Amino acid sequence: MWFMKNTAALQDPGAPIELPRTVPSEKVDFEGELAVVIGRRCRNATPANALSHVLGYTIANDVSARDWQFEMGGGQFCHGKSYDTFCPLGPVLVTADEIPDPQDLRLITRLNGQVMQDASTSDMVFNVTTLIVFLSGSRTLLPGTVILTGTPHGIGYARQPPVWLRPGDTVSVEIVGIGMLSNPVIEEPS
């Protein structure tokens, strides 16, 4: 599944996630994810060499407006994923040599201190090697390309009742061996 992340959606570590109000969303969700940063030009990677293209790993929160994604015609590929501030990254990049197996990392997402997601990257639908092979097929991944790897169970949308981000919340995504990304949630400034 493909979607667009506007470059303005990339967010500094620690900066607030802004809930959109001009083109509003009332169903903004968190998605803790492992992010892979490509370090050297990569085209048509193979399973044997895919990980050799990785510079390192960091943490992402693939914030998503579920109402625009599923209900209001914005589509998976547009409004639902691309609001400003909807992709905090960081706060560090751990080099690939420090992570011998990207499929052996624990990811924990907390909302206001409560654990919402707690899973291993071994549970990913597509592992990092598979993602790089697929994404580099007949196309070039340039150094600095960031690949978000997908989120584990526990997102707000899938909970009963659903849990949406609200002003005053804090979302923290931790990947053991990498660090913690923590962002407050605010209303979009007028």
Gist?
The protein is mainly beta and 190 residues long. Helices cover 12% and strands 33% of the residues. The chain is globular.
CATH class: Alpha Beta
Topology as a string of helices (H) and strands (E): EEEEEEEHHEEEEHEEEE
Q: Flag low-confidence runs.
A: none
Number of helices: 3
Q: What Rg, in angstroms, do the CA atoms define? A: 16 Å
Instruction: Tell me the overall shape.
Output: globular
- Report on the biggest sheet: 5 strands, mixed
Strand sequence of the main sheet, in spatial order?
2-15-14-10-11
Measured between the Cα atoms of the first and last residue, the distance is 33 Å
CATH topology-level fold name: Fumarylacetoacetate hydrolase, domain 2
How many domains make up the coordinates? 1
**What's the overall average pLDDT, rounded?**
91
Strand content: 25-35%
What class do helices, strands and sheet pairing give?
A: mainly beta
**CATH superfamily assignment?**
Fumarylacetoacetase-like, C-terminal domain
Helicity level: 10-25%
Counting DSSP E segments of at least 2 residues, the number of strands comes to 15
Task: Assign the CATH architecture.
Answer: Alpha-Beta Complex
